Amino acid sequence: MKKITYITVAALALSTSGWAQQGDVNYDESKVPAYTLPALLVTESGQQVTTAQQWEQQRRPEILELFTSQMYGRTPDDSGITVSYEVLTENTAALGGKATSRQVKLIFSNGEKTLEALLLMYLPNHVAGKVPLFVGYNFKGNHSTTPDTTILYSKNFALVREPGHPDWERGCQTNRWAYDDIIGRGYGLATMCYHDIFPDRPGLKRHSIVSLFPGYGVGKKAPDEWQAIGAWAWGSSRMLDYLATDPRVDMERIAIMGHSRQGKAALWAGAQDTRFKIVISNNSGAGGAALSRRRYGETIAIVSGIKPAWFCAAFDQYHEREADMPFDQHQLIALMAPRPVYVASAEGDRWADPKGEYLSAYHAGPAYALYGLKGLPSATPPPLHQPIKNHVGYHIRAGKHDVTRYDWQAFLDFADVHFGKPGALQ
Length: 426
Known about the structure:
It is built from 11 helices and 10 strands. By secondary structure, it is of the alpha/beta class. The protein has a single domain (about 65-420), classed as 3-Layer(aba) Sandwich (Rossmann fold).
């Protein structure tokens, strides 16, 4: 078998989507190495897992620890961090009167240093009773999700975008936020700029929530010290904490959706916090839904070379040594069981390895079978635009690395199946 040559970090040119899509990256299925996946339902002592109880008490904790110590890092004790809330605006006639919007400042403090993040949420006005809700980060600021001139800019956005940059334009990513569809179907949505939690630019770690925790910047970095993905996952849970204070929000019907690097973080958040009742990964690629052992498109060496601040230092040992990993991403997806999980791919997003994303979701199925729930039906991916809505769901659509209205409609359909449609209309 020919050795696959990977593009060097220095040669990577990041596209507007944030990913390199050029150079000598493997896009040839014939060059995918033969691989054997780590066993999902065999404990470290060699015991076969045959019941949901064994999964929850033995195997699931083992797998969670592997991803904690070897990939995403250990989420530290946050008992010394206080989080307070300040409602900044509320508009009962948002989105043309269809929704009530609210902007909330989350204030994080360790007693000496304080950081803040802005949460933007919408709740439908036409739904009686508690509202199911989607949670997800945006990439370009809350202002980018809507042309509404009352939406506030985050402090941290000025750290990552210079004055005059096109990303300051209001509504510059409305295509990724199908607010009318979400609200029209009776769901709410809460979003936050991911830079508020951990600015995704080198040299800005001191502006991240990580800098509030004991030990930050002191001594040599531990191999399992958490980094950006761990911080983003932690921040997702803090959004949930605020939502739990709103009597209109149905905390038993919360879905988290993440795209690209935030698809990675959404899976990690869902693995750690079972309050997320549906977990959705969109185009998350390596370190997210895609199987690392396939070495197709984005690989461990490439992604952690581009963004070394995303994963813990222990992950570096597996650069071009994927076969030595004691885990792979099908096990991450399985950590959601028995909660529904959905993986979405795009045909033109070869960088994220759509087939590897599908196979990872497929091989998570045995964990769901322990509960009598359906995973994906076959190792063969479905055709374009034919979503599967079992407890493990999947679709692949035409197009590129993005979040589209088609994706949102599929996510809403999946939520309708597993949450039940939102309550009676007023």
